[in-house]
Amino acid sequence: GGGSGGDDRGPAVGGMPSDATIPPVGHKRIWRARHNKWPEENDRDPAWYRHKRHVLIFSYSGKPVFSRYGAEEGLTSTTGALSAIVSKFTQFFFASNGQDGLRYFVAGEHIFAFVERGPLWLVCISRCGDTYPDMVRLLDRVHLQIMTLLTAGVERTLQQRPNYDMRKIMDGTDAVVNSLIRWCTQDVYLQIEGLEPLPLPPASRSAAVDALKNARVPNVLCGWLMAGHRIIAMVNNKQFKPNALDLSMIVNIIMSSSSLRTGESWTPVCLPHLNNKAFAYAYITFIPDSEVGIVFLSTSSEGEQFYAISQQATEVKKALERSGVLDDVQESLVRCPISLNTTAAAGSGGAGGEGVGEASPSSFMSHTRSGGERSVRRSLLAPSTPGQWRLLEGIIHAAYFIPSLQQYFSAAVSPEYRTRRQVKMLFRNYGRCRNLLKTAKQPSQICIATDHECFYVSMAVDFHMYLAVPRGISTGVIGQFYQWVKSQEAHIFLLQQPTW
């Protein structure tokens, strides 16, 4: 499949696609510093058409707003033609009710998916085998990201001035949108409306929550600690219920900008599910020489508010350093994502040594600190007996989502599936499973098989479960993964919802 950065163009006729291996820590690939936009390309260049997954945004008037590949000003012929197509379809088929519009069409091996949002059209053109619902979900998230950056006010401007060139205010947002697209295609994130917590010992999580809870500032909606893109702890204002998609858009903005991860930042962000017409203000600071960030969302933009939050953030940093939480966070960061492959011989005393990004659940218990009691209390995962989770050894990938918490756990992809092409294949097949279940009454489940793998998705009110396993594995792996998650809930999820 396509959709990554690097040279994501298809091969010339008779050529073979490249199969670059993903580095072990996947988020380093998603939020990398550079995206090959190929700005010298335009729609008169044959190379532009060889990219496997295009994302285009244009206004009603056909003016290009964003393109994943190529220079926007060189794509006016394409956006003009697409604008004419959707306009003609509307006139021919939907003029009588005005309630519908062109959704998608297929041309050869390409599928063109269209999403209309206000005065904007978002289009995904893919030859990766994507399902239409996944393409729509991707475009909806791209639109949400743009609203997070600009608010819905930009749509009002376009409605009043159809020829307004939106590229002026989109300047600098390419990296954020491209990172989001990679996140959607190289992670289970597209299938889930949630945030991913960082696995931590419950005692460490409680200490992190306490540090945040002691930071009381008026007019703050919520605050969280993050390590990479994963959430360590979160505290909300009693009057505010956060939307995980809104917060994930802010996480992506932070992860996509190295400048936001140095010093202190005070930047406007929109929370579309709260109010898509106004900005909130994000205070962002990172602990020096670490991937640990402190974020507060404020409704007030006053300078005094920035200084009040800054003082509290300094106290949070001190509390984290005093409690030893940062040591546990660093160890978890080194060992994430958790690998389920090596648990056949796992036990609470098992030795680690799997290497960065390949930590087995046993290796999460292998570290020691001064005093045996502290070592047990701070086990990164709950102890288990050798062989207890034998069937998990064969899992290619697994994920578990709790809708009521808006949180998910996603395991490491097994090493033999870590090529870019195979990673995308795994997550695309989850989308196919979900598509087949879209009209099913919950609880529902489905399994689809390819030549070498089986993909299992279970959708219930309380949880969603995703499994990719080799063909021929015992169906007992489903129950065993479920039981493993239940045994680890306190370590891999933020079960408490603390408030100020």
Write up what this structure looks like.
The chain has 500 residues and is of the alpha+beta class. Helices cover 33% and strands 20% of the residues. The protein is built from 13 helices and 15 strands. The protein has helices spanning 26-30, 76-93, 132-150, 153-160, 167-170, 174-185, 202-213, 244-256, 303-323, 325-335, 372-377, 420-436, 476-492; strands at 53-59, 64-67, 104-107, 110-117, 120-126, 220-227, 230-236, 264-271, 275-286, 292-298, 397-402, 407-410, 444-449, 453-459, 464-470. The strands form 3 sheets. The chain has a 5-stranded antiparallel β-sheet with strand order 2-1-5-4-3. It has a 5-stranded antiparallel β-sheet with strand order 7-6-10-9-8, with helices on both faces. Strands 12-11-15-14-13 form a 5-stranded antiparallel β-sheet, sandwiched between helices. Strand 3 (104-107) and strand 4 (110-117) form a beta hairpin. Helix 3 packs antiparallel against helix 6. The protein starts with 25 loop residues before the first helix and ends in an 8-residue tail after the last helix.
Question: Approximately how much beta-strand content do the residues carry?
Answer: 15-25%
Count of alpha and pi helical runs: 13
Sheet with most strands: strand arrangement: 2-1-5-4-3
Mean pLDDT comes to: 86
Count of strand segments:
15
Low-confidence spans? 1-7, 10-25, 347-358, 362-377
What class would the helix/strand composition place it in?
alpha+beta
Instruction: Output the radius of gyration.
Output: 23 Å
Broad shape = globular
Helix-residue proportion: 25-40%
Secondary-structure element string: HEEHEEEHHHHHEEHEEEHHHEEHEEEH
Largest sheet: 5 strands, antiparallel
**Ends distance:** 45 Å
